[in-house]
Amino acid sequence: MEYQDFINAVATRAKVPTDQAETLTGATLATLADRISAGQAEDLAYQLPDALADHLRTPLGRERATSFGLDEFVRRVGDSPNVDRALAGAGVSAVLTTLREAVTRDEFEKAVAQLSKEFWQVIEPVGAGGGRRPGS
């Protein structure tokens, strides 16, 4: 998936302008990188355009994920610079759903397996929502 397609899908799902979608995407992917193993974050990054992948790449020396639940995840996204806290929940949902479409099923499932089950509550089912589907 191309960068602009990813951002447009997030904007549509979160019902925000594309500049806010870019900010929400960066904050969500960076928070995800803190939450999953560095190796898994790198595996996801490998399948994304560089402008998205850079948010998933972790600093050298951080190998272990930090464990926290969905509420804390959304709070951390909302605390990111230039993120409207009121949009953080919708942004997390939009980014994770779009990420599922942008990477292989296997890699997405490996990443989400490192998260608590509550994260599945915010990921739209396949075929739902307002984003473009691959091949459409």
Helix content range of the residues, please?
55-70%
Query: DSSP helix count?
Result: 7
**What order do the helices and strands follow?**
HHHHHHH
Q: Strand content of the residues, in percent?
A: under 5%
- Rg computed from alpha carbons, rounded to a whole number of angstroms: 13 Å
Structural class: mainly alpha
The second-level CATH architecture is Orthogonal Bundle
Which CATH class is shown? Answer: Mainly Alpha
CATH topology: Globin-like
Low-confidence stretches: 129-136
Average predicted local confidence, pLDDT: 89
Distance between the terminal alpha carbons, to the nearest Å?
Answer: 12 Å
Shape: globular
Q: State the fourth-level CATH superfamily.
A: Uncharacterized conserved protein DUF2267
Number of domains: 1
Number of strands: 0
Largest sheet: none
Structural topology:
Layout: H1 3-14, H2 18-35, H3 38-46, H4 50-56, H5 70-78, H6 88-102, H7 105-112
Helix pairs in contact: 1-2, 1-6, 2-4, 2-5, 2-6, 3-4, 3-7
Give a written overview of the molecule:
It is globular, with a radius of gyration of 13 Å. It has 136 residues and is mainly α. It has one domain (3-122): Orthogonal Bundle (Globin-like), CATH 1.10.490.110. It is built from seven helices and no strands. The model is unreliable at 129-136 (pLDDT under 50). Helix content is 57%, strand content 0%. The protein starts with a helix and ends in a 24-residue tail after the last helix. Helix 2 (18-35) runs parallel beside helix 4, helix 2 crosses helix 6 and helix 3 (38-46) packs antiparallel against helix 7.
